[in-house]
């Protein structure tokens, strides 16, 4: 009975640690993009991504993740990842530097009320508007904005 209890607790403790799986984007764009061009892709709209660059990939892709590396707003540079499933954009993630807080206004968040954490320099903000859930996380080096349905 003692061995059975020990085995039971070992299995519970071993299986309780979850593993986070990070999926890499299938498509990268490193060419220059303007923010105005990508703001036409808000979360919840339908899109059929067309790949015309190479013959190794399918021409029409209804599901996947696209990473736009060089997005510019005036002289500011940042990145955007767009995830779509069954031709509907389900999430958009903006990767900003910590000093680019003025870009939050440009992407549609003029007034962000953040809550600080126990670690100095880290903060989070959670917003619900227009059937979209937005989480903004910042620290001393970067700001990440995640919009989902």
What this model shows, in words?
There is one protein chain. The protein is α+β, with helices and mostly antiparallel strands and 149 residues long. It is 15% helix and 44% strand. It has three helices and ten strands. It has helices at residues 2-15, 35-38, 102-106; strands at residues 27-34, 49-50, 60-61, 64-73, 76-85, 88-97, 115-116, 123-129, 132-138, 142-148. An eight-stranded mixed β-sheet has the order 1-4-5-6-10-9-8-7. The radius of gyration is 20 Å and the shape is globular.
**General shape:** globular
Distance between the termini: 49 Å
Radius of gyration: 20 Å
The major beta sheet can be summarized as:
8 strands, mixed
Structural class: alpha+beta
Percentage of residues in strands: 35-45%
Element order, helices and strands? HEHEEEEEHEEEE
- Share in helix: 10-25%
Widest sheet, order of strands: 1-4-5-6-10-9-8-7
Counted by DSSP, the helix tally is 3
Tally of extended strands? 10
Parts with pLDDT < 50 across at least 5 consecutive residues: none
The average pLDDT is 77
Write the layout of secondary structure elements.
Blueprint: H1 2-15, E1 27-34, H2 35-38, E2 49-50, E3 60-61, E4 64-73, E5 76-85, E6 88-97, H3 102-106, E7 115-116, E8 123-129, E9 132-138, E10 142-148
Parallel strand pairs: 1-4
Antiparallel strand pairs: 2-3, 4-5, 5-6, 6-10, 7-8, 8-9, 9-10
Briefly summarize what is shown.
By secondary structure, the protein is an alpha+beta fold.
């Amino acid at each position: 009975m003692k061995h059975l209890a020990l085995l039971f607790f070992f299995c519970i403790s071993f299986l309780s640690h979850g593993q986070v799986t990070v999926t890499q984007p299938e498509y990268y764009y490193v060419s220059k993009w303007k923010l105005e061009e990508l703001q036409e892709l808000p979360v919840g709209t339908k899109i059929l991504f067309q790949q015309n660059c190479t013959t190794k990939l399918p021409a029409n892709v209804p599901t996947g993740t696209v990473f736009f590396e060089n997005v510019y707003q005036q002289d500011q540079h940042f990145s955007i990842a767009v995830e779509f499933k069954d031709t509907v954009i389900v999430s958009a993630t903006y990767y900003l530097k910590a000093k680019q807080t003025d870009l939050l206004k440009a992407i549609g968040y003029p007034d962000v009320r953040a809550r600080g954490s126990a670690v100095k320099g880290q903060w989070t903000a959670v917003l619900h508007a227009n059937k979209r859930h937005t989480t903004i996380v910042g620290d001393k080096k970067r700001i990440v904005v995640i919009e989902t349905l």
